[in-house]
């Protein structure tokens, strides 16, 4: 439900929160001002090659990464709607997320996502990265991931 709090939870979980910004190859027009067609070109020319480098450095299996890796079916039907239901849904609450990252693999991925993917993508789009204090509505996990629907509490209080 509250994705911003997920980023906050990652922030608590990851040792160092923050990181450097700003060495991106800025496009001549800001992403937010681009038409849909310009966004397609920008994704092809800038986002895809840059993000592929980031993902491949984490895991060589991303050599074969393409638009569907992030956009799922949206890259097939041409809508490119985000977030993508084909990327694993993340837990919806901070509590559930902290439980989720007890799995070392989920923790490893989440740390990579937080440190590299979220930061690099926000830079490329020239939007603020989620920050609990300065950019509570900034770019976060929930721009790409959906969230699992919360089931009722398993233990009644
Ligand atoms: C690393 C993940 C990633 C990859 C790879 C990627 N995109 Fe995107 N794309 C995004 C994100 C994130 C957004 C912006 C969502 C938002 O506004 O929050 C986006 C937005 C878009 C949009 C704009 C959608 C709209 O509603 O205006 C288009 C079009 C698009 N991408 C096309 C592509 C194409 C074509 C490719 C392959 C060449 C591609 N994308 C590869 C992550 C990705
Ligand atoms: C720019 C888009 C984008 C952003 C932002 C993003 N992710 Fe991801 N994430 C992906 C993609 C794409 C994959 C799937 C890669 C694949 O196909 O294996 C993924 C995979 C994961 C996985 C592995 C899931 C599994 O299959 O085990 C985890 C965990 C994860 N992300 C957590 C996060 C967290 C936590 C955040 C925020 C701190 C975040 N992601 C931000 C795009 C994104």
Automatic annotation (TrEMBL):
<keyword id="KW-0408">Iron</keyword>
<keyword id="KW-0349">Heme</keyword>
<dbReference type="InterPro" id="IPR036280">
    <property type="entry name" value="Multihaem_cyt_sf"/>
</dbReference>
<dbReference type="InterPro" id="IPR009056">
    <property type="entry name" value="Cyt_c-like_dom"/>
</dbReference>
<dbReference type="GO" id="GO:0046872">
    <property type="term" value="F:metal ion binding"/>
</dbReference>
<dbReference type="GO" id="GO:0020037">
    <property type="term" value="F:heme binding"/>
</dbReference>
<protein>
    <recommendedName>
        <fullName>Cytochrome c domain-containing protein</fullName>
    </recommendedName>
</protein>
<feature type="domain" description="Cytochrome c">
    <location>
        <begin position="46"/>
        <end position="129"/>
    </location>
</feature>
<keyword id="KW-0479">Metal-binding</keyword>
<dbReference type="GO" id="GO:0009055">
    <property type="term" value="F:electron transfer activity"/>
</dbReference>
């Amino acid at each position: 439900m509250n994705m911003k709090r997920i980023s906050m939870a990652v922030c608590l979980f990851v040792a160092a929160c923050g990181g450097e910004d700003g060495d991106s190859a800025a496009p001549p027009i800001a992403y937010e001002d681009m038409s849909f067609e310009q966004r397609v070109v920008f994704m092809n020319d800038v986002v895809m090659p840059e993000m592929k480098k980031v993902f491949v450095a984490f895991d060589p299996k991303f050599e074969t990464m393409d638009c569907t890796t992030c956009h799922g079916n949206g890259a097939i039907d041409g809508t490119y709607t985000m977030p993508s239901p084909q990327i694993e849904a993340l837990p919806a609450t901070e509590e559930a997320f902290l439980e989720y990252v007890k799995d070392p693999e989920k923790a490893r991925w989440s740390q990579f996502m937080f440190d590299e993917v979220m930061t690099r993508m926000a830079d490329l789009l020239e939007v603020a990265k989620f920050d609990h204090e300065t950019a509570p509505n900034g770019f976060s996990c929930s721009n790409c991931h959906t969230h699992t629907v919360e089931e009722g509490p398993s233990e009644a209080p």
